[in-house]
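Issue: copy button drops trailing tokens. Both records pasted manually instead:
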Amino acid sequence: MSSSSPMEVDSQLPNGSSVVAAAPAAPPPPSKSGKLAESLKLEHQLLRVPFEHYKKTIRSNHRTIEKEVSAVISGVSAAADSELTRDEAVDQLSSLVSRLQGLKRKSEDGSRTEHLQAQKCRARLEHLESAELENMSEWNNTRLKRMLVDYMLRMSYYDTAVKLAESSNIQELVDIYVFLEAKKVIDALQKKKVGPALAWCSDNKSRLKKSKSKFEFQLRLQEFIELVRDDENMQAITYARKHLAPWGATHMKELQRVMATLAFRSNTDCQSYKVLFEEKQWDILADQFKQEFCKLYGMTLQPLLNIYLQAGLSALKTPFCYEDDCTKEDPLSQEAFRKLAQPLPYSKQHHSKLVCYITKELMDTENPPLVLPNGYVYSTKALEEMAKQNNGEITCPRTGLVCDYTEVLKAYIS
């Protein structure tokens, strides 16, 4: 059951008689403010992604400025050391001035981009700070929409994700712009083009090197394979000398295997080399890019929606969930949830019976347990009877909490 509270346990003694014993008092349920604080700890990705994008833009702008300023200084030094006529000197300086003006425009554009990305970080911080006990229902609704947008973007439903973000006014809280950047590379790989992926590797070379990524090497191998497939052997050898040889010190075994395709060709029956020419290699590259992309921006490898669902399913999964007579109220009676829960372990179960504190009756599928807002659990029959006698109000016999019957939640016994 997905709730912990004081309860009574009906257990069987060795001689077959039964006894009802009071279980040890459970710790008091966590306060709502404590639950809120724990919930916010899961929002790492919400802040990490725009911050990483912001840092990347700053680094890119810094490199551009350094490159242009260095070129201008070199140009001034070269002009000073050369014996130029007056007209030549004027032309040279005019060219340098034009270059500086171009740099100014680039700097202004870069500054605006940095400002927009800083604003995204600020908006997300303010969103997290706005989470209060009084507005948790609305805040959680926004969180659900964010997770749905994240899921759609990862599943390549870009247009639907954009429409949901716009209709919910959460554009500042989702990473559409980041996933659209990835979309260009994924689309190119699906068309068997490595150019955009190699450009992405070049832009992020230092960070990929730090994480010991093999993605660029895999792209180079695939480009070599395509040359061999087209019987461009000499061009393939030249390509290998230029782009694959530098990887020899760390990936010699893989390099030797790929170089052997020059002898085996694309129509080989040898499985070790035949697999290198299969179309699925492009799908593997696309999947590998998605993993590298997520790691670069600090994203989870799985959609957030899957992670949250699996967290809940892990408490419900038992062998009974996979039997034909599994109750339809159990989420794991549905095939989609069963597939999602497949890698999860079974939840720890004790062979105990839940007895209602009020009626002393057994709580089961016919008389399911209900959870009050304070975390205590009582049977449906007891709370329904109490609500009828008190105009829909329920009073917790242990803590004195008064709430409406509509506020209770159903708990599942697994």
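Record 2 (pasted manually too):
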Amino acid sequence: MSAGQAAMGAVSAAAPSVLPQVLSAVFYGTCSFLIVLVNKALLSAYSFPSPIFLGIGQMAATILILYVSKLNKIVRFPDFDKSIPVKLFPLPLIYVGNHISGLSSTSKLSLPMFTVLRKFTIPLTLLLEIIILGKRYSLSIVVSVFAIILGAFIAAGSDLSFNLEGYTFVLLNDIFTAANGVYTKQKIDPKELGKYGVLFYNACFMVIPTVIISFSTGDFQQATHFQHWTNFLFVFQFLLSCLLGFLLMYSTVLCSHYNSALTTTVVGAIKNISIAYIGMLIGGDYIFSVLNFIGLNICMAGGLRYSFLTLRGNSKPIQPEDEENTLPESKS
């Protein structure tokens, strides 16, 4: 009986951890879904010419929100010292690359094809988790991941609106996103910077170089001379994008904190497939083909299969030290 009671106690202790895992994944998926729609409206519908300037706005919003929150003791993270750049590297470089390539690719491709090509983030994340974090995944998880990729190949192979520049940006964005997820998982240890410290100092270190890039490329000048700054709806959506940029970064860190980087990536993939379906109906830039539609459905099936395995606990990485043993220490 004592062994049975101990087992029941272990199950009941583990059960509460499922709720933050699910909620953080839903929060991330929702933020990621909304920001793609808002950015698509800004960069395509309004033809806003300055994706780097939009990224600067999102970084500035992150710095302002977290700094004011720290002053009011809502959040805590370490004060700056000379060891912080060393602790963060190479995350700031990956962070700005992810921002710029993501915003640039959104404006170059139709919404459905953008979401399909983003699926290549998943095997890159899987590979980087194995190399950098030393994780191992079951065959069922690997099969689910590559089902998503198979669907992406089928869908992209029938793209009737091929854009080399757009494909280049989105594949760069895949690489940066995968690296960002894996290194974020590595850096959010509360003994180091914690969730909020990673977000704040990432934005601080990269906002000035990004402003310099924006000036040197003419991006900043194009933004300041944009004709719709007097349009209330445009300004509202621009500010909303800045706020959502912060929420997306925060939700990404939160989801990586409670789950694996791979799970965070797959949640993003499922969200992207949902956007693809919506884009068929309301985007106005989707060119239908049978292969493309079949590919999208294969992607969704693989994503849902991965989600099912995750909820059953089969996606837990096989590694020498179980992450769940260190989870209570990881909360900040």
